[in-house]
Each structure stands twice: as structure tokens, then as C-alpha cells.
Amino acid sequence: MTQLMTLEQTRFLRACRRETVDATPIWLMRQAGRYMPEYRALREKYDLLTLIKTPELACEVTLQPIHAFDLDAAIIFADILPPLEGMGLKLEFVKGEGPLIHNPITSLADVERLITPTPEEALSFTLDAIRLTRAQLQIPLIGFSGAPFTLAAYAIEGGGSKNHEKVKAFMYCEPQAWHLLMSKLAEVAGHYLYAQAQAGAQALQLFDSWAGQLAPEDYRRYVAPYSRRALEIAKAAGVPLIHFGTNTGGMLTDLRDAGGDVIGVDWRINLTQAAAMLGDQVAIQGNLDPVVLFAPWDEIALRAKAILDQMRGRSGHIFNLGHGILQHTPVDHVRRLADFVHEYSERNR
Ligand code: CP3
């Protein structure tokens, strides 16, 4: 109980609630991963799904960046795609190519066949990893899920995609199947988020990485109701909800209106403009371009400073990248960024 009370007062959770902080909190999307030598060493022995499905290993990977850098939150090591496996899709991570679904959805009958197991039935490995990690961690732990649209994109495209034409064509051409698919995904994502908070996560993030592929009116019509449903189910857990997407500069208010206490923003919009659109009832997370971490340190510091200056005096900013950290990112730049964000924001509140 005392640990929970102390956690509630950490700068990350205070910023999620738009309370004052001593310094701006920072964590990085995909902070555990291939840019870290410790992670690569484990990956020589185990494939990605084995790491994710073995709670002791998932816990160890979650803690790697926490031991290496002064970050304000951990994110449980998992992926957005295993929930699709639980629904009946065959998932593989192909070396050098990314995720592959062997039986992508092409028809209403395919959607009807999808099952919606409980998180305890299909994803107990991640819930166990959260329990294990919570017991070994002094800072808040973030649970997460893919949002219905981003999950539908993988389920229908069968993998990554440049234009997302299959998922968008399905959305336009098969309204009944689309509604059923998105309803099932919203239930699965919402209950998965809720279960992660019950297992010990202090905050939850909904990743709608590909929402920005849609026109705002299509987002509102075909996607927002289902993101809202997932976030409504998760909200019952009583922890802050982070709603993240990329390329969402033209639909930030729509994303906000679909739900979330914190809105995740990428670097394609500056934070002054994003804050003006979002208003003061939500916190903001972002938004350094992950590629900036490849620049010389002085340039990185300038860009980080610009972001902090844009958010200066506004309660409720969580420093992050605008999207996941990239594979060849220099480790030392990550360490210096975390320290710089704390030092600079503490001096310039
Ligand atoms: O943030 C963290 O540290 C937690 C772990 C995490 C992973 N994936 C581990 C991972 C999180 C939060 C994710 C989210 C995720 N996964 C998203 C949403 C965020 C985003 O980046 O848009 C998406 C779209 C996926 C799907 C996915 N997983 C792809 C497209 C790939 C292959 C591309 C890539 O970067 O390799 C993965 C694999 C994956 N998931 C890796 C990691 C660390 C790389 C795996 C490896 O080979 O070791």
C-alpha cells in the first residue's frame, strides 16, 4: 500500500493527472529493444515471441532500460500483436521483415470466426510479466494495447503496409464485417488494458499507430467509436489512459474526443500548436523525432530544449519520442537525453 501511495506521487503519474512536477518526466516508446546491447544479447538466445511469452524474460527486458537510464516509467515488454493470435490469427515475426499474419482477414466469414477470449485465457503471460515486474520496480509501470484500427490494419493487411489500401477498402466495402471486426477488437483491447491495470500497471497506453492514415471524417465515422469503447472499458480500472497516434496533426481533437487523459503526439506538429488544439483538459506526451537521436549531442539538446520551452508552464507534459526508438540509436544519446530533460526542466519551470 505504501508503495502504491508513493508511486501515485511520482512525476510521471502527477503529469498524467496535470499536477505540478519538480521536473518533466520522460520515458521512450519501445525503450526496451534492439538498440540496447543487453537486449541483443538475450535475442541471440530467444526469439521475440519467446521473450514476450516467458514472464521472467519479459520482466528482465522491461527492466533493462530502467537500469541503464534515468527514466520515469517502465513499459511492460510485449507487443501489440499477440492479442490477434488469441483471436485465431497465425502470427509470426519474420527475421528482418517484421510481423506476418499467415491467415489475414478477407471476408465477413473470417471475422465471424474470430474468437474473443478473456485476457486471462489468451494473454496470461503478459499479465504474469506485469505482476513479476511490479514486484521489482520502484517507478510506475505502463501496460498497453494496440487500438482497434491499428490491430485491424495488421489483421487485414497481413503485415506492415505503405498505403493501407486493403484495410481501408475493407472498411469502405464491407460495412457489416467492419463493424463486427472493430467491435470484437474494441472488446479485446479494452479488457486487455483493464486486466493489465488489475495485474499491477499504473497507466495504460492505447497505440493507434496508423490512425493518421485516415482522413479525419473517416476516423470519426469508422474508427473513433471503437477506440472510445476500448478506452471506456479500460477507464473502469481507474488509472490514467494515454491515447497515442502518429500523423494525427489534422485530427488531434478527434483523437482527444475518443478518450484518454494524455494524448500522444508525433513530431509532425509542434507542441504549441498541438496544445492549442487539445486545450487544457488533457496532458500531452511527446514529441521528439526519433531520428534526432542520430544527430550530434548539441543538436539533440537544442531540439529537446525547444520542446520543453514550448511546454513550459503547462501542467501535464510527459517527454517522449514522437514514435518508437529506432534500432541503431546511440545508447549514450538516450542516457544524456533523459538527464537533460530532467535538469533543464527543473531549472526552467
Ligand atoms: O515500448 C516498449 O519498450 C515495449 C515493447 C513494445 C514492442 N512493440 C516490442 C517490440 C511495444 C510498446 C510495441 C508496440 C508495437 N508493436 C506497435 C505500436 C507502436 C509503434 O511502434 O507504432 C506496433 C505497430 C508493433 C508491431 C511490430 N512489432 C512491428 C511492426 C515490429 C517489427 C518492426 C520492428 O521495429 O522490428 C515489431 C517487433 C518488435 N516489437 C520489436 C520489439 C522490441 C523488435 C523485435 C526484435 O526483433 O527483437
Topology at a glance:
Layout (H helix, E strand, L loop, with lengths): L1 H7 L2 H6 L20 H9 L2 H6 L1 H14 L5 E2 L6 H6 L3 E4 L3 E4 L6 H6 L5 H4 L1 H13 L4 E6 L1 H10 L7 H9 L1 H25 L3 E6 L7 H20 L5 E5 L6 H7 L3 E3 L6 H8 L4 E6 L8 H15 L5 E5 L9 H17 L2
Parallel strand pairs: 1-4, 4-5, 5-6, 6-7, 7-8, 8-9
Antiparallel strand pairs: 2-3
Helix pairs in contact: 5-9, 10-11, 10-12, 12-13, 13-14, 16-17
The structure holds coproporphyrinogen III.
Short description:
The chain has 349 residues and is α/β, with parallel strands linked by helices. It has 17 helices and nine strands. It has one domain (3-347): TIM Barrel (Alpha-Beta Barrel), CATH 3.20.20.210.
Total helices: the number is: 17
Coarse morphology: globular
CATH T-level fold name: TIM Barrel
Could you say how many structural domains there are in total?
1
Low-confidence segments, ≥5 residues, pLDDT <50?
Answer: none
Biggest sheet details: 7 strands, parallel
Quaternary structure state of the chains depicted: single chain
Within the largest sheet, what's the order of strands?
1-4-5-6-7-8-9
Distance between the termini: 31 Å
CATH class: Alpha Beta
Residue fraction in strands: 5-15%
Helical fraction: 40-55%
Average residue-wise pLDDT: 97
- Helix/strand-derived category reads alpha/beta
Ligand roster: coproporphyrinogen III
Following the backbone from N to C, one meets helices and strands in this order, namely HHHHHEHEEHHHEHHHEHEHEHEHEH
| Radius of gyration computed on alpha carbons | 19 Å
